[in-house]
Write a structure and sequence with these properties.
Radius of gyration: 23 Å
Structural class: mainly alpha
Helix content: 55-70%
Shape: globular
Largest sheet: 2 strands, antiparallel
Strand content: under 5%
Order of helices and strands: HHHEEHHHHHHHH
Strand order of the largest sheet: 1-2
Number of helices: 11
Length: 242
């Protein structure tokens, strides 16, 4: 065509290598594994509210490059688990008592709404699936395997709320619960709280099996109280210290 200049590739020229999709997926998988491990560390209290997440320490722990560590921290921040403070850097998210109450009020609204809209009776197949997940949670609690207990607890709640057949509400419940990880860290590590949560789950399954909607809603509301109150009590205790 007139006015168009064709540029031919020089013989023997070297093309710039392009990262393969497989290599990109490998990096993404690695980032997700690190994010999940740090998520567990926060939820289980191995990393405390207001504790700094130092880039050099994370690089050494996970053998990551600095830009990858920053991707990890960015994802944790988007999940509501980490916050950045001027002149401090990244640290585990902490909450005031009012913020805890506000977040848990929201969780109660979302979770009781879903419980109230689960169509009863639930099919035996769905009940069996929920019970199978809870048996995994039972085993993790019995073995004091906190990481497995944390993951199986998340799986139980996901399957439970999906019974409402309301995807937007289920997604919001997961987001709100995720933001509460550092709050729950003050209760989830204690055996009596773990045991109470385990019993609550079985009571929810029984209420589903019995078709008792009001009991189901009440159980969802009561299930939130221990972690909320434990954090508020600890927050007030710290505030009372000279």
């Amino acid at each position: 065509m007139p006015g168009r200049t064709e540029v031919a590739e020089a013989p023997g020229s070297v093309r710039t290598p392009v990262a393969s999709p497989a290599r990109d997926r490998d990096l993404e998988d690695r980032i997700q594994r690190v994010v999940q491990e740090l998520e567990e560390d926060i939820a289980l209290g191995f990393l405390h509210p207001r504790e700094r997440l130092v880039e050099d320490e994370l690089r050494a722990r996970f053998n990551l490059k600095r830009h990858v560590v920053r991707q990890v921290l960015q994802e944790l921040e988007q999940m509501g688990l980490v916050e950045r403070k001027k002149n401090i850097g990244a640290q585990v998210k902490s909450y005031t008592s009012k913020e805890v109450i506000d977040l848990y009020n929201l969780r109660e609204i979302l979770e009781t709404h879903c419980a109230r809209h689960i169509a009863l009776p639930v099919s035996p197949a769905k009940l069996d699936e929920l019970a199978a997940i809870q048996r995994q949670h039972d085993a993790a609690v019995a073995e004091s395997n906190l990481r497995a207990a944390f993951r199986s607890n998340l799986a139980f709640h996901k399957a439970f709320f999906e019974l409402s057949d309301n995807a937007p509400f289920t997604e919001l419940i997961e987001i709100a619960a995720q933001r509460a990880h550092s709050i729950r860290s003050l209760s989830i590590i204690f055996p009596h709280h773990l045991e109470q949560a385990r019993l609550d789950h079985w009571n929810m399954i029984d209420a589903l099996r019995d078709g008792d909607q009001e009991r189901l809603v009440a159980l969802c509301s009561e299930h939130l109280v221990p972690s909320r109150d434990a954090y508020i009590e600890q927050h007030r205790h710290r505030a009372d210290k000279p």
